[in-house]
Design a protein that fits this description.
Shape: elongated
Number of helices: 19
Number of domains: 4
Number of strands: 13
Radius of gyration: 35 Å
Helix content: 25-40%
Distance between the termini: 84 Å
């Protein structure tokens, strides 16, 4: 249990554990800023800052009062679509720092049983005179904190809470810079924070998605900004009518607003989709900003044991295909398109059925696992091996037949390349003619080759000394079954790029005539 506690992430964004922080603090007393700079914690979203402050013995929480009111919602109080505007008043305003545009605040409510509830919200407004913060919260019926806000809004009484100092970074755009906001649902809050300080002097476009007209917040506020400034425009996207935003919508907006900063905030799927579309449009990464928030889920209601069993079975069944990823089950996987020359072959031409019936194969497998059988039987199909290839590709003229590498002197080639197996170079269903991409494999057998009266330029000895092993295939066809005149000069040989292209299904640089000298001599006799 102690190990689990130490490995708990204090900062999920930077993946910093409690043990990491303890080592840093124990080795050298440091401030919060030094801890952030050295470990990277508490910088991105800032939700872990209060805990970091408590670890360092710094005051983390400020007593405050919250006043809640309902925001533009025509639905019932029990509906989860209701939003609240919450004004936060720190008790000691002199010790509470001013927030920066785009920062967040954590609200902590301690229940009667001593359990603390913490939630993070974006600061959408700050009153420098009253020293009050304003946040927006969505009512969740199954939540722990927002139902308390609902009760507070109904009786108009102040709520005793604690708040953190402003956390997280500011909005990343510079002043007077054109901006396009893509927001969905409660992700409107960063845009709202910016627009409440907006002076109307530079272009702003807001694309705001919600699941119904009733869920759009501050519609009158956006309309008033548009009346006052021609530089501001917005779209309220009701997804129940027009559907969710897609790549075409984003492309049209980008065409109308070039050279702008993009700020995206909403559910994870929404944020990722919009960001990915913008990146595919070659928008510079420096111009795309997705706001990060810590997500806290309410406790789930207990489900029946039958439902748990159903979920477990569904998960188990969905994971069964993963068994095909193991090497031992590789021959059960559908591998896709056949290689060149094998397009008309049936699967059974290579994947031959194993000996025995299905029942006998199962019995043999069980006997093997129980130790009553020495060899592991093949289940379903036999493995495709060199013997399978030779049944169709036997070639008496092959200069490098697979069986040749079974000799003891070729131990290194077997261990390094698997040269005794056809499939090590010619992997089926790969859409390549030769799957071995390294063309320097000749060095494993020919590093001590000596050619007497060598007429080539440069000589073989020179090429070996300079380790130009990629040059071998420029003159020599590995299997030696193409009729061709070998060049004397390396500069007249095939280019290595052409050979690599041939490996990848391009035209054969060695020619199209297959030479079978031994078979021809046999026929002549």
């Amino acid at each position: 249990m102690l190990k689990d506690k130490k490995s708990r992430f204090v900062c999920v964004c930077a993946r910093v554990t409690e043990e990491d922080i303890a080592q840093k603090v124990n080795n050298n007393k440091c401030s919060l800023q030094e801890l952030q700079q050295s470990l990277g914690c508490g910088i991105e979203c800032g939700s872990c800052v209060p805990e970091l402050q408590e670890i360092l013995g710094i005051k983390a929480w400020h007593p405050a009062y919250a006043f809640c009111r309902i925001v533009e919602c025509t639905k019932s109080l029990k509906d989860s679509s209701r939003f609240f505007e919450i004004k936060l008043f720190p008790e000691d305003v002199s010790s509470y720092p001013d927030p920066v545009l785009g920062q967040n605040v954590i609200i902590r409510l301690t229940e009667n049983d001593g359990q603390a509830i913490e939630r993070t919200y974006t600061i959408v407004d700050f009153d420098p005179i009253l020293r009050s913060l304003t946040v927006i919260a969505k009512h969740r019926v199954d939540g722990k904190l927002t139902p308390v806000f609902a009760q507070n809004a109904s009786n108009e009484s102040p709520l005793k809470i604690e708040i953190s100092e402003p956390i997280g970074g500011s909005l990343v755009v510079a002043e007077q810079q054109p901006i396009v906001f893509y927001v969905a649902g409660s992700g409107i809050t960063p845009a709202l924070a910016y627009l409440r300080k907006y002076t109307g002097t530079h272009p702003i476009y807001l694309d705001y998605s919600a699941s119904s007209q009733e869920e759009f917040l501050f519609k009158d506020f956006f309309a008033s900004i548009k009346e006052q400034s021609t530089s501001f425009d917005y779209t309220l996207r009701d997804t129940s009518i027009s559907g969710r935003i897609d790549a075409d919508d984003i492309s049209k907006t980008a065409a109308k607003h070039p050279n702008v900063q993009y700020l995206i905030c909403g559910p994870d799927a929404y944020t990722q989709m919009v960001s990915n579309v913008l990146r595919r449009m070659d928008i510079p990464a420096a111009n795309i900003h997705a706001e990060a928030f810590s997500v806290v889920h309410a406790p789930q209601k207990k489900t029946s044991s039958i439902k748990h069993f159903a979920y477990a079975m569904a998960l188990f069944i969905s994971l069964i295909p993963l068994l095909l990823l193991f090497d031992k089950t590789e021959h059960y996987r559908p591998h896709g398109q056949a290689n060149v020359g094998h397009e008309k072959l049936k699967c059974a031409a290579c994947h031959q059925a194993s000996t025995g019936s299905f029942r006998q194969q199962i019995q043999a497998k069980v006997a093997y696992f129980l130790g009553n059988r020495k060899t592991n039987p093949h289940f379903g199909n036999k493995p495709v091996n060199t013997r399978t290839c030779i049944e169709c590709h036997a070639n008496p003229d092959d200069r490098h037949p697979a069986q040749r590498f079974l000799e003891p002197k070729y131990e290194e080639a077997r261990q390094t390349l698997g040269a005794h197996q056809c499939i090590k170079c010619h992997r089926e269903h790969s859409r390549r003619r030769v799957t071995l991409s390294d063309t320097s494999f000749c060095l494993h057998c020919h590093s001590k080759t000596i050619v007497k009266n060598d007429p080539t330029a440069p000589t073989h000895q020179s090429l070996i000394r300079n380790k130009q092993w990629n040059s071998c295939l420029q003159c020599h066809d590995y299997h030696g079954n193409h009729k061709a005149k070998i060049p004397i000069k390396l500069e007249d040989a095939h280019k290595i790029n052409a050979i690599n292209a041939y490996f990848n299904l391009a035209k054969n640089p060695y020619g199209s005539v297959i030479y079978k000298a031994k078979l021809q001599k046999k026929d002549e006799k």
